[in-house]
Specification:
951 residues, alpha/beta, 26 strands, 13% strand, 42% helix
Amino acid sequence: MNAPLLPESRWEKSPLAARLRAEVAGEVLFDAASRGRYATDASIYQVMPVGVVVPKTLADVEAAMAIAREAGVPLLARGGGTSQCGQTVNRALVLDGSKYLRRILAIDPEAGTAVVEPGLVLSHLNAALREHGLFFPVDPSTHTRATIGGMAGNNSCGAKSIRYGLMADNVLAIEAILADGTRARFAEDSAEPAALIARLRALGAAEASEIAARFPRQLRRVGGYNIDALTPAARAAGRGNLARLLVGSEGTLAFSAALTLKLAPIKPRKVLGLCQFPNFRAAMAATPHLVTLDPEAVELVDRTMIDLGRSIAIFRPTIERMVQPGTDCLLIVEFHGHEEAPLLTKLADLETMMGDLGHPGAVVAATKPAFQAAIAEVREAGLNIMMSMKGDRKPVSVIEDTAVDLADLADYTERLNEILERHGTRGTWYAHASVGCLHVRPVLSMKDVGDVRRFRAIAEECFALVRAYRGSHSGEHGDGIVRSEFHEAMFGPRIVRAFEAVKDAFDPAGFFNPGRIVRAPRMDDRSLFRTPPGYGPDPAFTPKLDWSEHPGGLLGAAEMCNNNGTCRGFEAGAMCPSYRVTRDEQHLTRGRANTLRLALSGQLGADAMASDALADAMALCVSCKACRRECPTGVDMARMKLEVLAARAERQGIPLRARLLAALPRLAPLAARVAPVANALAGLSLTRRRLGFAPDRRLPAFRRDAFRDHEAPAGEGAKVWLLADTFNRYFEPENLRAAVRVLRVAGFRPVVARAPGGPLCCGRTELAAGRLEAARRAASRVIAACAGDEPVVGLEPSCLLTLRDEYSALLPGDAARDLAARARLLPEFLEERCPSLPVSAMATTAHVHGHCHQKAHGAWPATLAMLGRIPGLTVAPITSSCCGMAGSFGYQAETAAISRAMAEAALLPAVRAAAAGDVIVADGTSCRHQIADLAGRRAVHSVQILAEALK
């Protein structure tokens, strides 16, 4: 078991922390859990920082720097934390600029430039530039969460580097804060600080011949410092901009306060040709020919990525469209332009060339934007798809950035595969074939001593092979811990001494991110690993759910988070709604997974699963399950949260509010019989204060006309079990009545599932309280009541989909699996079993909000399709994340404001924009209440629309 983090008293109560809190307006985080969340990035490393500052302003940055400098504590600037080589972890004070330092300071459309703060996310910049017909052309796959400062630090590249170059080619100037606190501007015409610049220029002149002899000539060279920009030849060629020196420096030279970027015009049209190859060698041999067609990008997708993509529900349909039978790997060739006709000609030329190369008919054309967007989603998720392998052996970042000339690519990749085979492993391959930079990762376990030895041996042999081809050992992702120690072999000792001279000129005390690029530790120092010697599950904790699908159990499930940060995106899907509101690492799927992993491995001390630190990390998780579907590595935080709730309930008990909500299915029958009294009591200010409900939120009202089982009378037709959930039974019974009518008209005989002891409940409320044994009993009753082979149909997504999700973890076995296979939401059931219904036309628009669980289980399209059957009805899906209600989350005084902010992000503006005569559709009872309370519009279940349309 891992040793715990340093004692709280040493950091949380340190003079450094106290002074930072007194002098910095932003957040100051020194607790063990916060430091642990910033101890990792998307690499294999984990290094505990001294503390974390989330600065609100540059004044905060300068204050924090001054305080750290006086305390003798190093500083590490960090953006999205998605670096893959360990450059954003260090034993230092971390400055996270991604929350507040994200302004666009200026856009000059005429000059084609923008000035931005370092924490600005690339996709947010491009969204703002779109109205000017411009974009920033460096496009890493992490564009939805990569910050401009982080991209500059790594010298990011992306798929279009063959056209637009690297980050160093597109950063015109950097306003920097130096190690001593002074400001300086690094640009083409930099003159100050004069002494520093003169020293740098002299170094460039002295080492010009060595730089010319030793620097790889690949476009994709990002290793070391860009000291080639200091040479007289670079200045004469217009490549002597001193901003190039800071780009790729991984935060080791200065803090970038503002960056001036070179923009490019948007090419509004594109076509893609998906070139199919029977083997990897054929694809590599074809690449030099394909680039002669002048594409925007040529991207590789290998067999491993194809197979893993097929296994992930969100990507499976796209993979099936992309890949022809018999294909081993793809090259995705992109052509961009302003007119479609020339692009179609390019596509025809591609098909001709593929035929000439011996692959006739081997191009799948993608000319429609929707298909192109789906392909882009798969390509951008490449790393995460690779990392979705379950178990300790995963693709490891170590040699994934090597770059060689295209003419050598086929031979190089073949010889590299031989190295991997000799070491008893294989590689995963994807990315930038157009520039000879393929992301290849050996599949290894960093917990295994033998594989750690292979880790180093593969690196040494691969880098020797790269040097033999005069290639670059670092082609996009930077140096960090994993590659910095190899600079001497790559560049020679004289160049490395020059790198050290640059570091010392900027930062003589080693204040900025020490040990990266120069004077680096060994890349296989296991004390720096996320899984150091002794790492493993805390034997004192036993999970209460079944985690056998994950090798390594619950800890293995938490380790599926590779920290690549897809959950930090805002542009699509529903993940992660609480982060979208707070922008706090703590309230992010990645942050929660890291906190959980630290707790499960004993790094947060004894009984950490029941600790306040873990409870705080889970407090804003609304169990939307978006991560279940949208996280490419399958991190299911909603299910993992159940273990935390159960551990805390067992250790500290269950508060009164949670106990009452858990008991709702048992209390509801009585409350409905005395509905006026029950509703009046629930509305009292005293009740609300005592239970901690927000004073301005209306609680759902019990109905005296609750749905009764006899309202589904016997009749003809195939039997269907109807799951009459608590919410629709006692609060909105008209929905169940409509469901009975629809099913009967469709030719089925709905029978309300029942069991001794009162109405059935799926156990959802018990799960939310951490009462897993009570939920298990509820699940057993449902399984027994729905015995047989008849379909089980329900209306409430959170209830019905519990049968498909949590039951297999609560009661693993054939009975739960069988029930899950038969359980369907009503729209799904009708789409599968009833292709037509006698419906009349409805001349209106239905704005449809999808419940998070519908989306997580891929069930929302069935609702849209069912409504789409109604003639004259315009179905308008609402693009939104979680509505924010999430059971009781929106009613709770402590989370009501967050709930409202979640709804205001997209859902409520869309509802308010709907015409007065339009209908709002939401199949979740929580969603309907949120819309009614906060937008003043009545939302209805889709079954109501269908029932109204029945002839």
